[in-house]
Write a structure and sequence with these properties.
Layout (H helix, E strand, L loop, with lengths): L6 H4 L5 H14 L2 H16 L5 H13 L5 H13 L3 E6 L8 H19 L6 E4 L7 H13 L4 H10 L3 H24 L2 E4 L7 H15 L6 E6 L5 H15 L3 E6 L4 H11 L9 H17 L4 E6 L3 H13 L9 E6 L4 H9 L4 E7 L2 H17 L3 H19 L1
Helix pairs in contact: 2-17, 3-16, 4-16, 6-9, 7-8, 7-10, 11-13, 13-14
Length: about 400
């Protein structure tokens, strides 16, 4: 019987020193004043190479949430997780920005190196990509705006929007598509899954379209390319079902990574500022309802859908595990994979792994200066998700107390 209260299993991989560091870090994150101070100072301090800041960040928040500054530096952690039957999703943590064609070409090269590296490791079945690391945000937004103004299916609106671009913009977009295709073709050859990460709604339609195109091309025999469905959007359950119908009609496997979402405050603020309806669910209950409905839909259609249940919500993970048992679905079924971010929700990850489920940690890597935006989001996420930090702290303190009593 799985129990997410089993702290001995959850933190078996952590030393006493590592557990104490996590206790300190989540205590700081849980303090709103200290968190605000960190969010306001750390990015600037790292950018300006303030003395000792690199060492301080690496020994604290970086150590908790990141695998290393390079892929090779991440290997000991990848191997350590593997000993506990926990796999890894490698995430080159490059964030969006208008860097220019040379930088996008270099990022593409790096993503392909991640694929090749993952193929040499028995414990890394997936890698992830943010399209904003390969494309100019303004171009994505222009395409998205045109698609929103159009009519018809996603693909019809996409094709019309691309046609409406200026010639030089069409060439620029073709380069973006080729970058994604080259990464995905390499991944198919190496049998490594490619997870296309979610973006903000105002640039997401072209990301959805190109991801669906790549799935149609490459997911005929097995799932290689996965889209990310943010279920805190009120339109995503319907969109997931529509994508399933497209996959069934065209004969490809739908790769679906289900998340709740990471841009809620930003999305609501922009909708209010620009006076359009918020794309976010009206309340948490609606989000939870659609998330669990999406998981059930995928599990009910496992022949055509490969699901990655990416969630820190204990109820959603337990419900899916119980659903699999009720339907006599093997815990290691190749089309169901559970995942949590490294540094968070170990009670879910390691207890599922001990019960034989396919489960992974989402493991970012990269130079500290490049990873800081990711780290700031993780810190903010822990405070914006109700009870997340207090739950992490409660479990860590419980395990520290258990270990003291066992000595």
């Amino acid at each position: 019987m799985i129990s997410f209260n089993n702290t001995e299993q959850a933190f078996k991989y952590k030393t006493d020193a590592g557990l104490k560091r996590a206790n300190f870090l989540f205590s700081v994150i849980g303090n709103k004043l200290l968190l605000k101070l960190g969010l306001n100072t750390i990015p600037t301090a790292v950018k300006w190479n303030i003395p000792f800041m690199h060492s301080i960040v690496k020994a604290t928040i970086f150590e908790q949430f990141v695998g290393g500054e390079t892929m090779q530096e991440s290997v000991p952690l990848v191997d350590k997780l593997g000993k506990y039957h926990v796999q890894v999703i490698m995430d080159y943590a490059v964030e969006g920005g208008d860097y220019g064609e040379a930088a996008y070409a270099e990022a593409t090269k790096q993503f392909i190196e991640v694929v090749n590296f993952a193929a040499t490791q028995t414990n890394i079945p997936f890698m992830s990509i943010k399209v904003t690391g390969l494309a100019r945000t303004g171009l994505l937004q222009k395409l998205n705006t045109a698609m929103q103004a159009g009519s018809g299916t996603l693909m019809v609106r996409y094709k019309e929007a691309v046609k409406a671009l200026l010639k030089e913009e069409q060439a620029e977009w073709e380069n973006v598509v080729n970058r994604l295709r080259n990464i995905s073709l390499t991944a198919k050859d190496k049998r490594v899954g490619v997870l296309i990460d979610a973006e903000e709604t105002w640039i997401h339609d072209p990301v959805d379209a190109i991801t669906l195109i790549l799935m149609d091309e490459l997911n005929k025999q097995e799932a290689i390319v996965y889209n990310t469905y943010q279920m805190y959007r009120h339109d995503r359950l319907k969109f997931l079902e529509e994508n399933y119908l497209a996959a069934k009609e065209r004969g490809f496997i739908l790769g679906a990574k289900l998340v709740r979402g990471a841009y809620m405050e930003k999305e609501r603020a922009r909708a209010l500022e620009k006076n359009y309806p918020s794309p976010i669910q009206p309340d948490k209950e609606s989000c939870d309802r659609d998330y669990d409905a999406g998981v059930k839909f995928c599990i009910d259609h496992l022949n055509e859908v490969s699901l990655i249940l990416a969630s820190h919500n204990e109820h959603s993970n337990m419900a899916a595990a119980l659903m699999m048992d009720e339907q006599n679905i093997a815990h290691n079924h190749k089309h169901i994979h559970f995942s949590q971010l490294y540094g968070m929700s170990d009670q879910i990850t390691f207890n599922l792994a001990a019960a034989g489920f396919n489960v992974s940690k989402y493991l970012p890597f990269g130079p500290i200066k490049d990873v800081v935006p990711y780290l700031m989001r993780r810190a903010e996420e822990n405070t914006s998700v109700s009870g997340q930090t207090s739950r992490e702290l409660q479990l860590i303190k419980t395990e520290l107390k258990r270990r003291r009593g066992a000595k």
